[in-house]
Amino acid sequence: MMDYADFKTGPASRVFAGLGGEWASLLERSHSFGGLRHAVVSRNNEAHGCFVMAVRAYAGKASQGEHSLLLAICVLVDFGHVADKLSELLLTWQNIVRGCDRETRAAIAACIEAAP
Asked: What residue spans define the domains of the chain?
């Protein structure tokens, strides 16, 4: 499995940057998959759905590989319901690795393995 250090400096860094500066900073400050999950949930609760809003905004701009990783990140941070909603029309889970390089595939796998 991809370790957290590789995860946060790999393709996930592009996805979190796409979500916005505060999310990229949150990824950088977290030291584990569990820590990231806690930080995202806490921030989303403080700002009443800001993570979900950022995900929805970025989902329409992301490349196919980034979109797949974005949904896997949603699952990782306990927002699987958002991933389900965003993947309804795109068949994301049927085509999970289409358009993904090996590093992005590893990041997706790490999210799924570390999910609650």
From this structure: 4-114
